[in-house]
Amino acid sequence: MTPLTRTPHDPPALVLVAHGSRDPRARVTVDALMERVRRLRPALTVRLGHIELNEPLLPDTLARLSPTGTTGTAAESEARTAAESEAPAAAVLVPLLFSPGHHVKHDIPETAANAPVRARVAAPLGPHPLLVDALCARLAEAGWRTPRDEATRRVSAVVLAAAGSRDPDSAAGTRRTARLLAERVGVPVVPAYASAAAPTVEAAVRALAERGRHRVAVASCFTAPGRFATECAKAAPWIAAAPLGDHPALARLVLHRYDQALGHYEALGHDQVLDHHQAPGQDDALLPGHPLTVHPPRTLTPAA
After folding, report:
1. CATH number of the domain that 203 lies in?
2. CA 150 to CA 188: how far, in whole Å?
3. CB 71 within 8 A of CB 88
4. Owning domain of residue 200
5. Which residue from 108, 128, 145, 240 has the fewest beta carbons nearer than 10 Å?
6. Global confidence as pTM
7. Which residues face 160 on adjacent strands?
8. What are φ and ψ of residue 142, in 5° steps?
9. CA 239 to centroid of chain Cα atoms
């Protein structure tokens, strides 16, 4: 493996961390997002590493950033000198994931700790208003329009389809994204999951139908096409948005998380506001007797 030539003055490389998929469209989509990030910041080294299923795997990408081009071990990581441990990061790992779960908390940090280069792990992409911009734009492309009359609003809803995780922090993050999206689309938004958590998209759609909401769109909180995104879209009773892909708002969010990890500015604003929300019980909107919250409608305008 030929190492990447870098100088001490180069900014840390931005490494997009994708999950990986057997669907060939996934790699094409992530490559397109990577190119959009590069166009937004041409002087920045941008690379891709996968957690599983696709090459390059994340350890190989990080080894490529090493002057020697070799992978590291846990023992080698512990043997680094104090001077090396205080050196600037050579890479910032930005997970293409939308809430904190096992991959964000464990798999990616462990890979970073064992890498032959110093690496920081950025926060996941959600919750964040830029993520909501991308979700809204994909819904609009699929045909969603914010209801302008009360009768249509009463029968409308959105299901926010996400991958799912057993980690309660992941579900809390998805619920926060759902609340932000509800403020934008003016109808209830129910989080639902492809695996590991409840409800499923099918169950969420059924629960909404029981409450008289039959005009239901599915928003796809996935980076790229794959098995989960496809299965969730099939459960849509009306329209299903495409995965977020290389939407400009998502590319800007990637760079925001990169900058945030490096401490280039105090990212308090929206991020701190989101963290102050108290997460309700899981999927409260689907519990018997719990009212669905309907926010005042706002015009849904796709992000540029």
Report:
1. 3.40.50.1400
2. 13
3. no
4. 129-245
5. 145
6. 0.81
7. 191, 219
8. -80, -10
9. 21
